[in-house]
Specification:
heterodimer; A: 555 residues; alpha+beta; MutS, DNA mismatch repair protein, domain I; Dna Ligase, domain 1; 6-stranded antiparallel β-barrel; elongated; B: 274 residues; alpha/beta; Rossmann fold; 10-stranded mixed β-sheet; two-stranded antiparallel ribbon; 8 helices; 31% helix
Chain lengths: 555, 274
């Protein structure tokens, strides 16, 4: 049975007595791409023309083959298998050789969680069966042997009804004996090579054991010897997982599927505590976390969040998740939950706050390894004079709060980012541009500022006046200037007439002709004026190609 | 209440500490807040008549302050300027960044740098509505890790304001509410420690940048409308971004600054004078 036909059958169950095939078009001719069990029993096989198939089974039901959907279905199944192990890889290598698509799972160290290898396989096949897929599962020392046994080592007639025969766990050390009895196609070879081997009378893998490796390689190419070595564990083969395996994962299986929010919250709490313990053992703190719900119907619910600083504070992580826990839908019930730290960074041990007497500074008691963000104060001339009046008690308060500042700040920034979104909480970084709207870039609120395009990353006092508020888009105004080059004498903005009492300018800002976008490079030059109206409100207006715009507000 | 009184009485008076009427006033202040000495801390604004009008010889930290434009929708610049001037003085005193929350977010960092405030100490939060702004403000205040929290809101009710005041006290962080334009009649009085109204005022000189002054001093009509344990007043003042100082302005050129510029009769009187 193949994934292709099973996926279609799941979507539209065929009539009770009809066989179904999937079709693909090749050089104007319709060929069978996949056949279901009943059609296969009647002698149909992939690659046959549709006309021949109709001659054998006239009431054949046909559907179009959709490889992209097959791949999606296989990836979804791989994600579902994440409940057994994070090392899951979809495997399409069998499709070319006429075999079925499969999944490779590395369950090293996972079997005991499910009550042994046999129980793990049974749970796997049963779970897939519930989703409408008949599957065969084999567990062996090497991926190659498991692949071979799953496809060729189980009795052909085994279906969902005979669950026991659909699984096989090869005991350790029995690899060579098990493989010897299998046909050579079990070695994941190209169809042509299989044909060649069979023509030479080498039908079983065991027949190859006695042949010298050198002549095998000469006669059949290096692939055959390599595949044989892989299946027997003499050559290494790695399973490259679908998603990167996170360094820290905690897993919790519920005794029975539950959709109660309290159960999920409790489970999450237990996972957070376990994960934080693991992180502490390794001296790490989580930067990105993924909470995954494996629902009873085979679908997945995910909740991802990030922290601005490495953290392994259970209370903090709990609060972050609590803000968004209602966003995940438990569906018809959750069977398994996992919590993974997909990104972690070193975090040295934090000492909890010392109960300190007044006047004793605890500065430096809790300083994470990462540098605290530099909040430069070079621009504040008032600082030097203002530093004196604080009394002794105040000083100690300030210093103790300073010591705890980075952690508390990181936590509050996390909560804000969690609710407002990463784009909603930013710091401003300077950008080297003389156009006012391009002179500012957004930077993450806590981490090091984004790599500045120029070496001058610090803010400098601008040489010319700049407004406190810059309108997101310059607004056209009706202005009246006495002479073409003069500042406006009055202007109308938001239906109110402003008479100009004083003006200063112009400051000419030319377009950035080097800008990659032609539209931006060809903008007209702007003549900026700072104007003050009768009431004392100060505006930043400019003229471009004879038209006037209001761009900013001064204090 | 009673526990706070006992605690205070247990402390012996030290030499040099104010006694008599001043000491009693300080005690009352402590009892009113109930959160200890830090809550009564004031930020001196460096302007004697203004500091005298405020409790705690300055702007009380750990409290909610409301700053409203003199003319809604038109005086956003002066309101921003006055709040930033307070922040410049505050940033020298307290560690940590300032959180500025708004729905739109059109603060211009080079303008802040020109004003004397380091944009590197500013974290901007963009929220979707007043509700989210208020939530974020409360979170920021309770954390106690910020130098100050500023929020631009159009509407809020007395309960929300009370929550913010409590959050400011618990985190010992000053909170500034900048009122944006809202529909007439929607603004209800809220329980803020101080309530300011800022209007633009014509500057005396409109210096050209060639004279060496990058930015002329902005001038505002600052009305202290309401002040818990203080006296309302009305001031015409300038901000010097180069030194980070407020200064009073004489309404008429021929009067000295110390004799004029302050009128304590209330806003109406001042408006006529100004």
């Amino acid at each position: 049975m193949q994934l292709e036909s099973q996926r279609t059958a799941r979507q539209r169950p065929a009539g009770p007595a009809r066989s179904r095939v999937l079709l693909r078009q090749e050089r104007g001719c319709l060929l069978l791409a996949a056949v279901d069990a009943r059609a296969a029993a009647a002698g149909l096989a992939p690659g046959q023309p549709l006309a021949d198939a109709r001659a054998i089974l006239p009431d054949l039901e046909t559907a179009e083959h959709d490889p992209a959907a097959d791949l999606r279905a296989l990836s979804a199944l791989a994600a579902w298998c994440g409940r057994f192990t994070p090392w899951v890889a979809p495997d399409r290598s069998g499709c070319d050789g006429g075999g079925a698509a499969g999944l490779l799972l590395d369950v090293t160290g996972c079997a005991h969680l499910f009550g042994g290898e046999a129980a793990l396989l049974a749970a796997l096949v049963e779970g897939l069966g519930k989703q409408g897929f008949a599957a065969r599962a084999a567990l062996a020392d090497t991926p190659g042997l498991a692949w071979a046994v799953a496809r060729f080592g189980l009795s052909e007639g085994a279906g969902p009804s005979a669950m026991g025969a659909a699984t096989c766990a090869v005991p350790p050390g029995a690899a060579k004996a098990t493989l010897a009895a299998l046909p050579v196609a079990a070695l994941r070879l190209a169809p042509g090579q299989v044909e060649l081997l069979e023509r030479l009378g080498l039908r079983r893998v065991g027949d190859l054991y006695d042949l010298p490796a050198g002549s095998l390689a000469r006669r059949f190419g290096p692939m055959l010897a390599h595949r044989l070595a892989q299946a027997l564990g003499r050559a290494k083969e790695a399973i490259s997982p679908l998603t990167p395996v996170p360094p820290f994962v905690e897993r919790l299986a519920l005794p029975e599927p539950s959709d109660a929010p309290e159960a999920i919250a409790l489970g999450l709490e237990a996972l957070i505590l376990a994960l934080c313990r693991r992180l502490e053992e390794r001296g790490q703190g989580a930067r990105r976390l993924v909470f995954t719900l494996y629902r009873a119907d085979g679908s997945l619910g995910r909740l991802k969040l990030g922290t601005s600083r490495p953290s392994r504070e259970p209370q903090h992580l709990k609060r972050l998740f609590a803000q968004r826990l209602e966003q995940v839908d438990p569906g018809f019930g959750v069977e398994v939950m996992t919590l993974a730290a997909t990104a972690a960074e070193p975090l040295t041990a934090l000492q909890s706050i010392l109960p300190c007497a007044a006047g004793v500074s605890v500065r430096g008691a809790a300083v994470p390894k990462a540098e605290p963000p530099a909040f430069g104060t070079a621009l504040c001339p008032a600082q030097a004079r203002e530093a004196t009046p604080a009394s002794e008690a105040q000083l100690s308060e300030v210093s103790s709060s300073q010591a705890l500042l980075p952690q508390a700040l990181g936590e509050v920034v996390d909560r804000l980012v969690n609710r407002l979104g990463a784009a909603g909480v930013t710091r401003r970084a300077p950008r080297e541009s003389h156009l006012p709207e391009r002179a500012v870039a957004a930077a993450p609120p806590m981490g090091p500022p984004a790599p500045a395009p120029t070496p001058t990353a610090a803010w400098r006092r601008p040489a010319r006046p700049r407004p406190l508020r810059l309108l997101p888009r310059a607004q056209p105004i009706e202005a009246l200037a006495l002479l073409p080059d003069h500042p406006p004498a009055q202007f109308r903005w938001r239906r109110l007439l402003h008479r100009i009492a004083a003006a200063e300018g112009p400051e000419r800002l030319s377009p950035e002709w080097w800008h990659p976008e032609p539209a931006k490079a060809a903008e007209p030059a702007r003549d900026y004026f700072r104007v003050e109206d009768d009431d004392g409100r100060r505006y930043w207006v400019y003229r471009a190609e004879g038209r006037w715009y209001l761009h900013g507000l001064f204090a | 209440m009673s526990s706070g009184l006992e605690k205070f009485e247990a402390e012996p008076l030290e030499d040099g500490e104010p006694w008599g009427l001043e000491a009693l006033r300080a005690r009352i202040r402590l009892l009113e807040r109930g959160t200890g000495r830090a809550a009564c801390d004031g930020l001196a604004l460096g302007l004697p008549p203004l500091d005298a009008a405020l409790p705690a010889d300055g702007l009380p930290l750990a409290a909610l302050h409301e700053i409203a434009p003199g003319r809604p929708d038109w005086d956003d610049g002066p309101v921003t300027g006055f709040c930033l001037a307070l922040l410049v003085r505050l940033a020298a005193r307290r560690p940590g960044p300032v959180l500025w929350l708004a729905a739109g977010g059109d603060l211009y960092a080079p303008g802040l740098a020109a004003f004397g405030f380091d944009p590197a100490r500013l974290i901007e939060g963009r929220a979707k509505g007043d509700g989210e702004v208020l939530w974020a403000m409360e979170e920021g205040l309770r954390s106690g890790a910020l130098a100050a929290v500023v929020a631009e809101v159009a509407e809020l009710d007395a309960t929300a304001a009370r929550r913010l005041q409590l959050a400011a006290e618990s985190g010992a962080v000053p909170a500034f509410l900048l009122r944006r334009w809202s529909r007439p009649g929607a603004t209800v009085p809220i329980a803020a420690a101080t309530r300011w109204r800022i209007s633009a005022a014509p500057a005396a000189s409109f210096a050209l940048p060639d004279s060496g002054i990058a930015e002329p001093r902005p001038r505002w009509q600052v009305e202290l409308l309401r002040c818990r344990a203080g006296r309302p007043g009305n001031f015409l003042m300038e901000w010097d971004h180069a030194t980070g100082d407020f200064s009073l302005v004489a309404p008429f050129c021929d009067r000295p600054a110390d004799a004029a510029g302050v009128s304590e009769d209330g806003p109406a009187e001042a408006r006529r004078a100004g």
